[in-house]
Prior knowledge:
The chain has 2 domains: about 10-55 and about 175-240 and about 335-390, FAD/NAD(P)-binding domain, CATH 3.50.50; about 110-165 and about 240-330, 2-Layer Sandwich (D-Amino Acid Oxidase, Chain A, domain 2), CATH 3.30.9. Helix content is about 30%, strand content about 30%. It has helices at about 25-35, 50-55, 65-70, 75-100, 120-135, 145-150, 170-185, 230-235, 300-315, 355-370; strands at about 10-20, 40-45, 60, 110-115, 140-145, 160-165, 170, 190, 195-200, 205-210, 215-220, 240-255, 260-265, 270-275, 280-285, 290, 295, 320-330, 340, 350. A hairpin with a 2-residue loop joins strand 9 and strand 10 (about 205-210). Helix 1 (about 25-35) packs parallel to helix 7 and helix 4 crosses helix 10. The longest helix is centred in the N-terminal third of the chain and has 27 residues, at about 75-100. Flavin-adenine dinucleotide binds near residues 53 and 282.
Amino acid sequence: MTIPAHARRPLDASTDVLIVGGGVVGCATAYYLARDGVEVMLIERSDLNTQASGRNAGSLHVQLQGAFYRSDSEAVLAGRLDTLPLFMEGVRTWKELAGELDDDIELVANGGLMVAETEDQMRFLTMKAGQEKSRGIEVAIIGAAEVRRMAPYLSDRIIGAEYCPNEGKLNPTRAVPALARGAEAAGARILREVELLGIEVVDGGFRARTNRGTIRCKRLVNAAGPFAASIGAMVGIDLPISQRCVQGTITEPVEPFVSHLVYHVDRILTFKQVTNGNLLIGGGWPAHLDPATWSMTALRDSIQSNMWVAQFIVPRVAHLRLMRVWAGVNLRTDGRPILGEVRKVPGYHLAITADAGMSLGPACARLVAENLCGRKMSYDITPFSIDRFDGARPSQLN
Ligand SMILES: Cc1cc2nc3c(=O)[nH]c(=O)nc-3n(C[C@H](O)[C@H](O)[C@H](O)COP(=O)(O)OP(=O)(O)OC[C@H]3O[C@@H](n4cnc5c(N)ncnc54)[C@H](O)[C@@H]3O)c2cc1C
């Protein structure tokens, strides 16, 4: 979007709450605060929805991915297990938003299938399902006949799956702009191409120095996702977040034949068919990020490996043409979101999801807004406080 000349005048503005970051989390926080009558301004250094929120695969996750058990430390895995009920809130919040926003966000929640090829993999899924059920998550282990009935497009190699009926998908390129429009309609001011450069803590709040001038605010929300650590450093907070550059691929459109979110328990894959008929294939294959120029490049090896896995699980993919491959930077925490006010910097709030931030974004934003409004919390965010690190940086994130 081109910024009109009048909007480029130097800023000398003030607001009650200043949100930094125009992805799903920032836009949803602005939406909930503005609807509650709070004076709110959001600044985004580029355009809205241009980073992780506009580049993700739109999967609405609930169940844990098999890869987490292979790559995470015990502490991170425990964090993920404890956060599972928030994923249910994530799906519930998106369903509510689908009825409130001014656009069709293409939300479909037909459930997710994590498929397996071997008895060992089935035993692992049974163990995982037990852990998830103990956290109140609805999941079921299904055998080959049921998988065939539900998903006849899967390869005959698939002998069973873990089914989570609450999972699904949505279209991030529709959902986030709709949240931003909803926020503006409720009174939020959204400023594009305004980059936060520094924060001065002053009596009664903050002076936010930007490329366009100064914004005074009583409270500030760090919703900068993968970039949140730099906004934390501006007030002396060390946020244990790391960045990961990953990629996704989309095929040409075909008639609808896949209605679930499909994963593989041991291989890197998420797979779904979007409303237009294209198959969206991802799962976290690595892409290249040049930190000097911030340019992101999809890797040929990752494309080939991702497509190989996809056609191995869904043979029909072998006959489809690829339309587009892209990369994006995601964030990684200790498995839990980081939410709420920072005790040592009163008025400074964190709105940082864990890595499945599209699934969790609006639920986290709603909780941050409830907290800012001094409301009774609808979900206990104490376990998500920055206090849990107590000055220590989890080694896995270094
Ligand atoms: C390829 C890919 C696929 C993914 N697939 C899924 C999926 O299927 N399901 C799922 O749940 N999650 C998925 N994710 C993760 C998800 O996209 C992110 O976790 C989520 O979008 C994070 O949202 P955010 O608003 O916190 O961050 P972002 O969307 O990155 O927004 C942060 C914003 O802050 C802005 N900003 C930064 N610094 C400043 C500054 N100084 N001043 C002003 N603005 C600033 C940035 O420009 C950016 O727009 C995927 C991620 C990637 C990269």
